Amino acid sequence: MAEAALLAAEYGSSVAQLLHGHGYGPGHSVSARAVSEGVWRKCPACDYVGAPASVANHTKKAHAAVGEQAPGVER
Ligand SMILES: [Zn+2]
Fold first, then answer.
1. What is the pTM of this model?
2. CA of 47 to the centre of ligand 1 (A)
3. Which terminal Cβ of the chain has fewer Cβ within 10 Å, N or C?
4. Which domain of life is it from (predicted)?
């Protein structure tokens, strides 16, 4: 788990390629697998899935008007 998170932090969006290199083809549920392993996060407000940084960026853009900001998370 921790190793996976480190991988995600280090490789970011290339995690998919990483998984592909480990035998996960495009037809497999790479996203679901990555989420279940803690490598990726799922947006709590929609079905967007991606690396933690990507989800944070997506949340800012797509859900900025929701007003559900968590003080202390982004410092
Ligand atoms: Zn979203």
1. 0.44
2. 6
3. C
4. Bacteria
How much distance in Å is there from the Cα of 62 to the middle of ligand 1? 6
Residue 58 Cα to ligand 1 middle (Å): 6
Measured at the alpha carbon of residue 48, what is the angle toward residues 64 and 30, in degrees to the nearest 5? 155
Is the model's pLDDT at 64 over the cut of 90?
no
What is the residue whose two structure tokens read 């390629």? 17
Asked whether 50 and 11 are in contact (CB, 8 A), the reply is no
**Is 28 a residue whose pLDDT tops 70?**
no
**Mean pLDDT across the stretch 28-52?**
85
Q: How far apart, in whole angstroms, are the C-alpha atoms of residue 67 and residue 36?
A: 27
